[in-house]
Write a structure and sequence with these properties.
The protein is of the alpha+beta class and 153 residues long. It has one domain: Hotdog Thioesterase (Thiol Ester Dehydrase, Chain A, Roll), CATH 3.10.129.10. It has 2 helices and 7 strands, in the order βαββαββββ. Strands 1-2-3-5-6-7-4 form a 7-stranded antiparallel β-sheet. It is globular, with a radius of gyration of 15 Å.
């Protein structure tokens, strides 16, 4: 018997089933290496066509740090909901807390950001995640995020 575990992935169609976010606020293109509700990696391909680059900053385009944190939260929320399967129907993930946020390097057009998300705690509908954003293996941002699952009605 092999100890190899099959990790799941979610393409953009699956992410859109899990999250209510849509363009221009859906900030995750794909999720890979989903290990139950424990960990995963979200992927964002950053292009010059992103609407925030028009004003942040035209001469030196930089992805706003708050959007890096939002993308981490979206990745974490999709992980929690995907793991629930059919029980996720009618559930939303609400951002509760942001702790220990740090921004280390700017992210710009052409970068591919990998959002490494790991569940650190779960009590009932409340989850906590440790998150890191990396470009080419270099940490560009990090945060601890709290979220709560709730009915959308």
């Amino acid at each position: 018997m092999s100890d190899t575990k099959t990790l799941r992935s979610a393409d953009i169609a699956r992410i859109m089933q899990l999250l209510p976010h849509r363009y221009p606020f859906l900030l995750v293109d794909r999720i890979v290496d989903m290990d139950g509700d424990q960990s995963c990696i979200g992927i964002k391909n950053v292009t010059i066509n992103e609407p925030f680059f028009q004003g942040h900053f035209p001469a030196r385009p930089v992805m706003p740090g708050v959007l890096l944190i939002e993308a981490m939260a979206q990745t974490a929320g999709a992980l929690a909901l995907d793991h629930m399967g059919v029980e996720a129907a009618g559930q939303l993930v609400f951002f509760m807390t942001i702790d220990n946020a740090k921004f280390r390097k700017p992210v710009g057009p052409g970068d591919v950001v990998h959002f490494h998300v790991e569940q650190t705690q779960k009590r009932g509908p409340v989850y906590k995640f440790s998150c890191e954003a990396k470009v080419d293996g270099v940490k560009v941002a990090q945060a601890d995020i709290g979220a709560m699952l709730a009915s959308d009605s």
